[in-house]
Write a structure and sequence with these properties.
Layout: H1 8-23, H2 27-34, H3 38-51, H4 71-84, H5 90-101, H6 107-115, H7 126-142, H8 146-163, E1 178-188, E2 191-200, E3 206-212, H9 217-230, E4 236-240, H10 262-270, E5 273-277, H11 284-303, H12 309-327, H13 344-350, E6 353-358, E7 365-367, E8 370-375, E9 389-394, E10 400-404, E11 407-413, H14 447-463
Parallel strand pairs: 1-4, 4-5
Antiparallel strand pairs: 1-2, 2-3, 6-9, 7-8, 8-11, 9-10, 10-11
Helix pairs in contact: 1-2, 1-3, 2-3, 5-6, 7-8
Length: about 475
């Protein structure tokens, strides 16, 4: 007679019902224990008496679900991936399977199938590769077959090659590539700041440094400003995949909390390319610089009796010169490809932050928890229609402007209350509005250019470019 094997939940039902029948026990207690009704208990008692232990095996055990994919089709799909699509990520391959086989399979199912054969996605993370490598090593240690061991060692060697980050030669010219990053550290006692750094790949010259409380657009703009004023316009920035540098789809064109497109637009305006990577080893020069500064700079800040972030940023101006004199390569052996430094006015308008706003019922806009009303260059207030869309521009020097239909206005803050009373302050004198400078609406602030650039970035994001 074939031995009947029950699963855990089936075995529990069998034991409760067997004891109930053998001892003529309490059905209500059995129902509570199994969390079923008395009617179900009666059905189980009848099944036990007629079929015995075998009656508790679930009826669907051993049956192949109607939606299951046959072993033949499964084998064919796996062979197709191995032979023709091994460089395709699983999500993409699931779409190919649907188009070619008219079968809907999730990328998770494909992942599970291929993991059984020690195949991982070409987009697999380092942790996944490391786990597979450890699994293959363990199997190689346990096998007695020399042939199988050699095959496993070959697979491990292939993984090592995929995980390798070979040494990259320096760029030939200064300004050809600037590596950027921010380093979080306790730079002075009990004060954790982010140090934004930029280093030239060809000469290891630190071309910019700035402390901020977080890794921010302002921090990178400050570093960019130092590069533009001291060296000129570089050819390319090499950074990590922070949203400051890469376009990320949002519901609005601009966002106050995450100004993810501003830096890239400033680079686009000046003709600077941006290359991003998620692999720290790919930009090893800036990573090593972070470690060097974390080792040296806190000591120097302590020696200089720096006690706050403003003093620290002031100290960096002299420290960078000292650091570069000691560690950077000599300029006379490296040609510079920095373009001519732009004018201060050009830098001020390029390193700007742009945000969309809508005119409210008071004919003004709200920006950073303050209310402003647009005024002309002569100081005359402009009362725009409610719900009018516009762009608020914060220049690098902090001045605010409003762009409506490619006409620029200054923004005047609306105070919470009047500083003087015309009626009760005898020394009150009406001050005539001063003429305020409004920069020309050149390339960076023209609406068509802004919309065209961000539209192209959104399109590239959607097609995965």
């Amino acid at each position: 007679m074939r031995k009947v094997e029950l699963r855990m939940n089936e075995l529990e039902k069998y034991e409760v019902i067997k004891k109930l029948v053998d001892t003529n026990g309490n059905k209500h207690r059995a129902a509570i224990k199994l969390n079923v009704t008395i009617r179900t208990i009666n059905r189980l008692i009848k099944k036990y008496k007629e079929e015995g232990k075998a009656g508790f095996i679930h009826g669907n055990r051993g049956r192949v679900p109607s939606s299951a994919i046959s072993l033949h089709i499964k084998k064919q799909i796996i062979e197709d991936y191995v032979n023709n699509f091994s460089d395709t990520n699983f999500k993409h391959f699931s779409e190919i399977v649907y188009e070619d086989y008219h079968i809907t399979i999730s990328d998770t199912t494909i992942n599970n199938w291929l993991r059984e054969l020690d195949i991982i996605s070409p987009k697999a993370r380092k942790k996944t590769k490391r786990n597979l490598k450890n699994k293959l090593k363990e199997r190689a240690r346990q096998t007695n077959s020399k042939k199988i061991r050699n095959e496993l060692l070959e697979s491990i060697d292939t993984l090592d090659r995929d995980m390798a980050h070979p040494r990259r030669p320096r760029c030939k010219y200064m300004g050809e590539m600037i590596q950027m990053d921010a380093s979080q550290f306790y730079w002075i006692k009990d004060e954790q700041w982010y140090l934004h750094l930029a280093i030239d790949d060809a000469t290891s010259t630190v071309v910019g440094a700035y402390f901020d409380y977080q890794e921010t657009l302002n921090g990178y703009y400050q570093v960019f400003y130092q590069i533009l004023t001291h060296y000129g316009i570089p050819a390319m920035f090499y950074t990590d995949k922070r949203t400051v540098f890469e376009y990320k789809r949002k519901n609005t064109l601009f966002d106050d909390e995450d100004t993810y497109t501003q830096f890239s637009y400033a680079c686009h305006t000046l003709g600077v390319d941006i290359k991003t990577t998620s692999v720290p080893q790919a930009k090893g020069r800036i990573e090593r610089l972070n470690q060097t500064f974390q080792s040296r700079l806190p000591v120097e800040l302590r020696r200089a009796h720096v006690s706050n972030i403003d003093e620290a940023n002031e100290f960096l101006k002299s420290y960078l010169k000292k650091f570069n004199d000691q560690f950077a390569l000599q300029l006379n052996i490296t040609k510079s490809v920095f373009e001519t430094q732009p004018s201060k006015e050009k830098i001020n308008t390029t390193l700007s932050i742009m945000n969309t706003r809508v005119i409210d019922n008071g004919h003004g806009i709200r920006y950073k928890n303050k209310y402003y009303i647009p005024i002309t260059e002569k100081g005359i207030k402009v009362f725009m229609k409610n719900r009018t869309s516009c762009i608020v521009i914060e220049a690098f020097d902090g001045n605010l402007y409003l762009n409506h239909l490619d006409v620029l206005y200054n923004l005047e803050e609306v105070a919470n209350k009047e500083e003087y009373s015309k009626q009760f302050d005898p020394d009150y004198k009406e001050i005539k509005p001063k003429k305020k400078y409004i920069p020309p609406l050149d390339h960076p602030w023209r609406t068509d250019n802004i919309l065209q650039y961000f539209g192209s970035q959104k399109h590239r994001q959607q097609i995965g470019a």
